[in-house]
Amino acid sequence: MQNRIFSMNLSYTLTQPHSSSLRHSITMSSFPAKVQTVSIPYTQLKDKNADLSAKIEQGFGPNGLGILSISEVPGYSLWRQNLLHLGPRLANLPEDVKRELEDPKSRYNFGWSHGKEKLESGKLDLLKGSFYANPLLDVPTTEQSLIERYPSYCGSNIWPHKALPELETAFKTLGKLILDVGLLLAYHCDRYASREMVMLEGEGLEQTLVHSRCHKGRLLYYFPAQHSSPAHASMSSWCGWHTDHGSLTGLTCGMFTRDAVEIHCPDSDAGLYIKTRTGQIVKVEYGVDEIAYQIGETTEILSSGRLCATPHCVRAPRGDAASGVDRTTFALFMQPDWDQKLHFPGEVHIHQELIQSNESLTFGEYTEKLLDKYYHLKM
């Protein structure tokens, strides 16, 4: 199949008006501005009696950037290192070994994927490779009809047991840790959203994620450039503009290496960029030992815009110092179960042409509508 079906990263353009409060927090003397994420210490996050509504609103609310970070998570720094160091080793396995890790039936949403996804230009993306797996369930279901209908969710993990046996443990441990912290964050998101809306039992963000079999981890490896990138290289040169369509995405800070030695990023302008609701583009930064979390479209719709998703992209390092530098990172896409009923609100401002007011769809059905919109294909 020529078109890459990347079900976790569908995109749209935000056009809604944005409050001026964000503009006051950004120094306009430099463009794009560099902004630190709102950060919550883990000790506060795990306290269910703590009132984190102000920080939730600042990071995820209508005036926020759709991202915040969690600091001081026990064990996180070690497991981030353990997994990200495996990125170059995985990408440099023999081609015949990597082919055995591919899964075309899942549209390359399980196992190894390289050159299957298209860039904004329409060309195949040869700049990065990805390894996908469900960190909780090696076999989410054995029901063949579901596997055929939702192959990117219901397929089975493929691990390089002989070629890179340590990958499975490192991937699952980090993925489970990011999910557990994400569930704590989801609890506080529910408390924040419930102040202004009636939340039916079992339909909050936390319970939606607890019961899901759809969570998907993505280990990304960006191949080193053989030549320095030009100064005018696109802002989205490493990852095109998109908005995650699931519920909540956990992100590690990327690891840069040259000749298998970890280095600092050689270009301070490289990294994650976010587009605000006024159309501003800002560079977002968070600590290397922090876990960043971004809101997805599904959460924005179900919260009636109280928790907001934003388009984002990744810029590659430029200049002579970037030659030969590679990057590895990890994302965990937390999303509803394929059978989870989503009760959409009366006013839907995203994908209005796809969703009826007060409509109920399963997450799998909702995903099919999005895939048909963006790729003119059905699952």
What is the topology?
Blueprint: H1 20-24, E1 33-36, E2 38-41, H2 42-45, H3 53-60, E3 67-71, H4 76-84, H5 86-91, H6 95-100, E4 111-114, E5 128-133, H7 144-149, H8 151-154, H9 166-193, H10 205-210, E6 216-222, E7 239-242, E8 248-251, E9 255-258, E10 261-263, E11 271-275, E12 281-285, E13 291-295, H11 297-302, E14 312-315, E15 326-334, E16 341-343, E17 360-362, H12 363-375
Helix pairs in contact: 4-9
Q: How would you describe this structure to a colleague?
A:
This protein is 27% helix and 21% strand. It has helices at 20-24, 42-45, 53-60, 76-84, 86-91, 95-100, 144-149, 151-154, 166-193, 205-210, 297-302, 363-375, and strands at residues 33-36, 38-41, 67-71, 111-114, 128-133, 216-222, 239-242, 248-251, 255-258, 261-263, 271-275, 281-285, 291-295, 312-315, 326-334, 341-343, 360-362. The strands form three sheets. Strands 2, 3, 4, 5, 6, 8, 9, 10, 13 and 15 form a ten-stranded mixed β-sheet that branches. Strands 1-12-11-14-7 form a five-stranded mixed β-sheet, with no helix packed on it. A two-stranded antiparallel sheet has the order 16-17. A hairpin with a 2-residue loop joins strand 9 (255-258) and strand 10 (261-263). The radius of gyration is 20 Å and the shape is globular. This is Non-haem dioxygenase N-terminal domain-containing protein. It comes from Solanum bulbocastanum. InterPro entries: IPNS-like_sf.
